[in-house]
Amino acid sequence: MNDGDKSAPGRLFKTLYDELHAIAHARVRNIAPNQTLGATDVVHEAYLRLADHKGQPIENRRHFLGIAGKAMRHLLIDHARAKRRRKRGGDRVREALDAVMIDQQQQEPLDLLALDEALQQLENEDPELVRLVEYRYFAGLSIDQTAELLGSSPSSVTRRWNIAKAWLYRELKDTNDA
């Protein structure tokens, strides 16, 4: 891909399809039950966005998955916004994002729009924490993989991951209580 090979994105996608599908499935099952976007849809739409990737060169598999996670985040947020617009604002219910959910053990649906609003606020305070959430939650990367992408130690990533979860929990809990 970095050398301009136009068939490279397709080959990479085919190689990582099962892994991307598992990540997308984990994200889709954590959102509202009336969600009309399935895991396969998310993977294919993310692929279309990745095929046009013209940003920084892709360094390795984990870096690609990090970019894919970001694409999936934006895709899910865009879909949720479009759905809300169709309902003219709807009766959106904010659900708290707690540490259990962020570790992919959530039982209740996640309000992606509330999460996106919180991530946008966090972006103003600490953009690296947002990247960490994208890598860990949206791309499903491990602590070690995330540390490698961020150029940090696993212990630093673990500490920052706990900070991000606590910050998001507080923000979403405050929003839910309002």
Structural notes for this entry:
By secondary structure, the chain is an all-alpha fold. The chain has one domain. The chain has eight helices and no strands. It has helices spanning 8-29, 39-51, 61-86, 99-102, 112-125, 127-138, 143-150, 154-177. Helix 1 packs antiparallel against helix 2 and helix 7 (143-150) packs across helix 8.
Major sheet: none
Approximate helicity band: 55-70%
What is the N-to-C order of secondary-structure elements (H for helix, E for strand)?
HHHHHHHH
The helix count comes to 8
Oligomer: single chain
The whole-angstrom Rg is 16 Å
Q: Low-confidence segments, ≥5 residues, pLDDT <50? A: 88-107
Based on Cα principal axes, name the global outline: globular
Quick gist of this model?
The protein is mostly helical and 178 residues long.
Q: What is this structure's SSE topology?
A:
Layout: H1 8-29, H2 39-51, H3 61-86, H4 99-102, H5 112-125, H6 127-138, H7 143-150, H8 154-177
Helix pairs in contact: 1-2, 1-3, 2-3, 3-6, 5-6, 5-8, 6-8, 7-8
